[in-house]
């Protein structure tokens, strides 16, 4: 693919958007001059990033500026490269480590944890729906250049069409939602090839006149994710970059796309969601705990009066319950991450190896992920709303900023109705049915 114009997240079509100067984090480029060597090192690096973000997360949420600086911080830390092959300068860690990094960053800032999660998914798109040659080519491009990847892949929008012009495909249309595109180097585009029901994924350089962002993300939460609309106007991509397609025949390559392996993007990203939900909830618990210790007052009219809030039975009981459920959610998320590792370790590689993944195995993985989605959604919403009961009326002040955790998790947990995950799990339990692969399973 042509890469002229990729501009390290400073797209010309967003030059008037308010953003913090990426130079505010320049000191970390030298501090983090090399990548961690193992899982423990990666987790320490993620904690260091989280510590930096936590210092002014509430302020940045209020300012609502485009997160170019925060993406630069992720680049300096090397977190964008955690899954990439070592031969191109990546960390070559399994997905389970990637999920833990997402969770840790989200503890401090849900928006930036979400951006990291989506990047890790989109940066590995070619590994799942592309040919082995495409997968290797894009890993080299993305990892060596430390690119941040956005995505205009909203399956509910069917108005992004693809036509063929010679040796190129032309994307034309609109998406109501994209993630991180405004501050990305490359954007994953997805649409339906004209006259068929076949979808095409392809990477495109973000900094071009044909990609115009609406800058209309005005939602209550995840305010720094640049998740608004985008207009795609005649964006050309070489047929050779259509992931998993035969460029000569202009048809999907059945060996690549008509097998369960090619549908692994869906459970993989659903577990991305669960991990930043979990990170946000853990962050809320920690933030509220510190507030309670420092600021919450005991209730003087209960008949069993205490001198300080940390002696109050109901406060201790509530925090203890949150702790137990979050600890269980972490264990489930880690187990699901291990299941993802197992599938990719066993079936990644040449097409013959990919083809061995069965629908049953793929479906059982999806049910691990669905279980995690249900638990992290339910627990996350309960914790981020419930912390106000143990912090007190003053904690509702905008100055405190405790509300951002609930706003963040409430915003994204509406991405797709969790009720359908419950139904899906019910059919698995009662009828031993695994779900068919869809855009959301």
TrEMBL record:
The alphabetized UniProt keywords are: Flavoprotein, Oxidoreductase
Q: Where is the Acyl-CoA dehydrogenase/oxidase N-terminal domain?
A: 49-139
Q: Where are the annotated segments for Disordered?
A: 1-20
Q: Pfam families attached here?
A: Acyl-CoA_dh_2, Acyl-CoA_dh_N
Q: Where is the composition biased (Polar residues)?
A: 1-16
One of the entry's Gene Ontology molecular-function terms is: flavin adenine dinucleotide binding
Q: Does the keyword Cell division apply?
A: no
Q: Where is the Acyl-CoA dehydrogenase C-terminal domain?
A: 271-415
A Gene Ontology biological process term: L-leucine catabolic process
Q: What is this protein called?
A: Acyl-CoA dehydrogenase NM domain-like protein
User: Native species of this protein?
Assistant: Melanomma pulvis-pyrius CBS 109.77
């Amino acid at each position: 693919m042509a890469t002229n114009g990729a501009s390290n997240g400073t797209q010309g079509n967003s030059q008037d958007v308010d953003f913090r100067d990426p130079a505010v984090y320049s000191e970390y480029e030298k501090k983090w001059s090399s990548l961690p060597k193992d899982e423990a090192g990666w987790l320490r690096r993620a904690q260091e990033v989280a510590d930096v973000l936590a210092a002014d997360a509430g302020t940045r949420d209020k300012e609502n500026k485009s997160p170019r600086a925060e993406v630069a911080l992720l680049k300096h830390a090397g977190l964008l490269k955690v899954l990439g092959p070592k031969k191109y300068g990546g960390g070559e860690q399994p997905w389970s480590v990637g999920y833990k990094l997402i969770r840790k960053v989200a503890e401090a800032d849900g928006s930036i944890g979400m951006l990291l999660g989506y990047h890790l998914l989109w940066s590995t798109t070619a590994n799942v729906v592309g040919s082995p040659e495409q997968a290797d080519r894009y890993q080299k491009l993305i990892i060596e250049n430390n690119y941040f990847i956005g995505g205009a892949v909203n399956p509910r929008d069917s108005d992004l069409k693809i036509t063929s012009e010679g040796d190129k495909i032309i994307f034309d249309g609109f998406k109501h939602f994209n993630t991180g595109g405004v501050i990305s180097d490359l954007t994953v585009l997805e649409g339906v090839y004209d006259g068929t029901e076949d979808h095409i994924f392809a990477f495109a350089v973000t900094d071009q006149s044909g990609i115009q962002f609406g800058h209309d993300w005005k939602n209550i939460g995840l305010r720094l994710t640049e998740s608004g609309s985008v207009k795609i106007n005649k964006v050309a991509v070489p047929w050779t970059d259509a992931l998993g397609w035969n460029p000569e025949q202009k048809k999907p390559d059945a060996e690549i796309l008509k097998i369960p392996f090619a549908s692994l993007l869906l459970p993989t990203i659903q577990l991305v969601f669960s991990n930043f939900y979990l990170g946000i909830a853990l962050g809320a618990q920690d933030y509220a705990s510190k507030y309670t210790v420092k600021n919450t007052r005991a209730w003087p009219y209960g008949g069993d009066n205490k001198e300080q809030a940390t002696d109050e039975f109901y406060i201790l009981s509530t925090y203890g319950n949150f702790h137990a459920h979050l600890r269980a959610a972490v264990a489930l998320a880690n187990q699901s991450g291990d299941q993802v590792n197992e599938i990719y370790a066993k079936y990644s590689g040449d097409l013959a190896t990919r083809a061995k993944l069965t629908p049953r195995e793929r479906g059982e993985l999806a049910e691990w992920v669905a279980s995690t989605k249900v638990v992290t959604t339910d627990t996350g919403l309960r914790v981020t709303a419930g912390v106000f009961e143990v912090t007190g009326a003053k904690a509702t002040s905008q100055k405190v900023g405790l509300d951002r955790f609930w706003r963040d998790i409430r915003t994204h947990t509406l991405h797709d109705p969790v009720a359908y995950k419950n139904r899906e799990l019910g059919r698995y339990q009662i009828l031993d049915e695994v779900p068919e692969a869809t855009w959301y399973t």
